[in-house]
Structure formats: structure tokens, C-alpha cells
Amino acid sequence: MQPVLWRPSESSIKSSSIQSLINELNQAQNLGIDSYWGLHKWSIENIGEFWSRTWDRCGLIGRKGVHAYTPAQYFPEAKFFADAELNVGENLLSYGTDSEVAIIEVDESYASREITYGELRNSVAACAAALRALGVAAGDRVAAWTPNNSEAAIFAIAALSIGAVVSTASPDFAPSAVHDRFGQIEPKFLLACSSYNYNGKKFDCIGKIEEIAAGLPSLKKIVVVHRDETKSSYEDWKLWLSPHKGSSLKFDRFPFDHPGFVLFSSGTTGKPKCIVHRAAGVLLKLRAEYKYHLELSSQDRTLFYTTCGWMMWNWLLFTLGTGSSIVLYDGSPAFPKVDRLFEVAAKYKVTALGFSAKYADSLRKSELDLKSEHDLSKIRLMMSTGSVLAPESFDFLYKSTKPDMQLVSLSGGTDICGCFIMGVPTLPVHRGEIQGPCLGLAMNVYRQDGSNADKDEKGELVCEEPFPSMPIGFWGDEDGSRYRSAYFSGFEGVWTHGDFSAVTENGGFLMFGRSDATLNSKGVRIGTAEIYRVVETFPEVKEAMAVSQDWENDSRVVLFLVMNEKSTLDDDLRNRLKTALRNQASPKHVPDLILAAPELPRTKSNKLVELAVTDVINGRDVRNRDALANPEALDWFSQLREIK
Description:
α6 (117-133) packs across α7 (150-161), α8 packs across α9 (206-214) and α14 (357-366) packs across α16. The chain is globular, with a radius of gyration of 24 Å. It has a domain at 527-643: 2-Layer Sandwich (GMP Synthetase, Chain A, domain 3), CATH 3.30.300.30. The mean pLDDT is 93. Helices cover 31% and strands 25% of the residues. By secondary structure, the chain is α/β, with parallel strands linked by helices.
């Protein structure tokens, strides 16, 4: 059993939202629940009642209706709150007094500004009015290609308030990658930026906006946030809002299943999947996470390092609904020094700080004593996600920051815009473990034959019952076949998430990385198809295969190439490939290692099998080896020195 690194105090357990719900249920129904595990069991056996009580306890604004949950034979067809009506924008803006700080915006250059809840409400009202004036209506798609700034937050809340469907991407995504995403959903409006800064460098975006616009004929309007002297022919954000200042907030209410977001997930073939999320489902799921698992409230200031291209941006934005202030940091978290994020957290008195596991690993390798460098007295909660948080990083963070803070490792993803497993403030933190499953989420670990794995036995992470933030579907997937294939082809009737996991003797979870062919690059999941599209334009390359390898407590992307005759892989070609991927996709698409292979494994129907190579280079047994037409091709990968 792993050692305990933190225990909650008796007083914090008694005052927790978890204990409050236990007390409420015991008093009302005499259930005799005496632990988190008893409450969790109740929450997945009484799905409708749990989510109905959560709606009430989180103070959601709207008409709840009487049908909290309607089960169905096919998991995604289950219905939550079929007769409810609410407005997500209203729920995000109804907490916090006019004078309280809603958003603190900070960038690499140390520039910052504060926006109060009153100012936020006024700006959202103006933006909503401006969108309506353009003819944007409920169900229309709108998009943002911007840094992590307040304008993006205002725009997203305004769009949600009128029932529009929001999609965002970070400006390091090249125009072709933006086309692959936004081109599928045909947005009417685009919010863009004239430039952004990262790692001490300024990147101009005006030329790319023109290229993006050329590939999105559906656009009726482009508005640009100008933060410097850059000139452009596009209307400036402030000028665009100016005629609508003083507009009143209007909140039309929509059904629970009304779409609110399109998020993009990786695909191994074709363009990224456009995952359509119900805004209200995401709202309810995240409010449960904030209330029960993180205890976020108006007393908190929350900073999670993210970009607009990661679902954690949506996650951070929705914390406004608790009355918490949010800190939007734009730039590198490690510039000009590796502990820059902690410097920002200390300066702005952050209470809940989040970052990727990769960043935690970088801090650990720096051997900094963060508590001696920064005043971390306000931090009560530290969070990590994006990849597996190594046990050594648990040790480092407790030693280098605060022994009395709760360290929460999160696991979920873009697919559900939230978490499956995360912190539990009434339970101890064990080294290397995620504390437990989220309330209302029926999590389990299966063997390949679909049976329950034993304690500490590695298997597939699954969810056995529906939940409010499961996607509505994929954009353009009219018959639902792609949706079914993505999550329900592994085991009959349950959601298979594509992660290797194990349940510990403590009831917590150990994570071991992806079990599918999705790549995890710098904490962001990307699809192999986007890499292949660029790489296979090179005449020297015959075939390509990109896979993810567990490496130094994180993961790295390894690109294998089969070369055409008379071509060889040298440093010049490697550099040209990396430059092309950086410019035509994004820096996240650049592999860590590029190697030439004599042959790639394929099925008898001639499809390349990324999973087989992924298994080999990670030292796992190859799944479905019998389905390969050339299983001997794997021998070369198993003997490869460069991946050891």
C-alpha cells in the first residue's frame, strides 16, 4: 500500500459538501451511509435522485422539471432532465457581486488587468447584443482562435447566453488545422487575435487570419482582438462592442439537451472528431465536481494553466458559476523561469492551482524549493491532469510546496468535458493514486474479456452508467456509428474511455496512459491523421506511423517512417519534417523522435495497426496479433535500441 501524503482534518470532513449530502440523505431516508464509498454507491444506484439533488444543492437557475433521469437500453439514449429549461450563461453570471473580481488576466510580459463581475456582466450583455445584431441565433456555431484572454471568456459566455454553439482553438494551431476543426461545423462568426506571445517570442497572426477566412466560407464576420500596434482590416473587438454598451442581459432558456460546445478530439483517420456537448449537461457535471470534489466557492481564486484548445479552458471558465475568481494566464508557464506559474499564483493569491503532469515533472527536475521562493500560503488545493502524475511528482509537490494542501490528480477528458475520477476531500491522498471516482460516475476496470479486474490489476477504464455530460454525438455523424465506435465498441453497453487503469486496495485509481492509438503530446491529445497528412506530402516518405510511448513519467510521440527507394532519413529531413508539422499543424504535432522502419504492421485488409506498435514499444503484450498480415514486422520494433 502506498504511503499517505495528506489527510483531511476531522473538522474539514464534517463541514464538507460530501458529509452534508450524507447527512441530508440519512435524515430524510435513514440510509445509514457512513463513508464516501457508501455515498458513491448510492449515487450510481440512484442516478436520477443524485443529479436532481445536485441541481438543487448547487443552486442551478432554471426549471428543473420532474423527469431527472430516463434510462434507455443504449447508453447514449438515456435522458437527463427531459423537461428542464435553463440558460448556462445566466448560471455563470448570477454569482459574485458587481464589485467582486471575476477575472484576473495575466500574460508573459507581466501585464495584467482585473475584471469585476459587474464589468463581466456588462461586457457579456454587449457581446450578446452584437452577436444578435449579426443575426447569430440559437443553434448557430461561433468560433474563437485566440490566446487565453478575457475576450475569449466574454465571447463564450455571451454566445452561450443566446443559445449559440461555441468552439475554440488556440492560435498556435495552423490554418489547415483550424480548417480541419472549424470547417466541419461552419461557424458564422470568428473571434481572432492579431498576435500572441509564447516563450519570450511574439507571433503575428494577421496573415494566418486571412488564410483561415479563405477556408471558412460560412463566416459572416471576423472580429480581432488587437493588443498592440498591429494594423489590420478586421474590425477591432472594442469598436465592435462599442455601439452595444449599456445593453441589458437577456437569458432565453433552452432544453437540457441544447448543444453548447463543440470540442475536438483526436482521430487516427480523417479529420478530428467534432464532439457536440450539451451545455447544461457540462454545467451540472462540473458543478458537481466543484462542489463535492474540490469545494470551490466564492472564497476561491482558481488558476488552471490551459489554452483555448484544451477542454480545461471550458472547465476553468465554468468555475465562474461558483462565484470563484478565475486567473487567465497566457504564455509559457515556464518563461522566463520554470516556476513562473507559481510566481503568478503567489502574486494573485490563488487558492486552487492547476497544471499538467508534464509541468509538474519539469518542476521536479529543477529541484527548486518552491515554498522558499514564493508565498504559497493561500493555496489549499493543487490539481494536475493531461497525463499521468508520477509518484515522484507527488513527493516533490508535497515536499516543495505545502504539506497541508490537497493534491488532486484528475482524469477525464475532452470526450466528457469533465472528470471520471479525481480528488475526494474527505479521503487521504496516497502517493501516486487518484483518490476516487466522481459521484454519479459508475467507474470500473475491465479485463479484455469484459470481466472485472482484480485490485491492482491493470485493465481498461470504463463507465458503466450514463451521466449528464456524455456527448450528444459527433457533428455530421448522422447515424451515430462513429460515436458508437468511439466509446461503445470495446465492451457491450459500457463507455470505454481508452485509458489503462487499476483500482487500488484503497479504492483509488492508478493510471498507466492511453490504451488506444490516441497520442498525448505535452498533455494535449492529438490525432495521428493530422501528422500523416503533413508527413506524407514529402516525396521521401512512403508510409508513416506515429505512436505514443510512456517515457520519463510522461509520454512522448515517436514517428516511424518507411522511406521510398533511394531516400534516407537524415537530420536534414528530420528538421524539415518538424518545421512542416510545426507550421502546418501545431508545435504539439511535432514528434519527439523520428526513426526509419523497414516495415509497418498491417491488417489483412491492409490497414496500418498503430496499437500493435504502441503495445510493443511500451513493453505490453500485443492485442489481436492474429489479425496482422505481417506480425513478423513487430520483431524490428521490439529490438529497437532508440526506444529503450
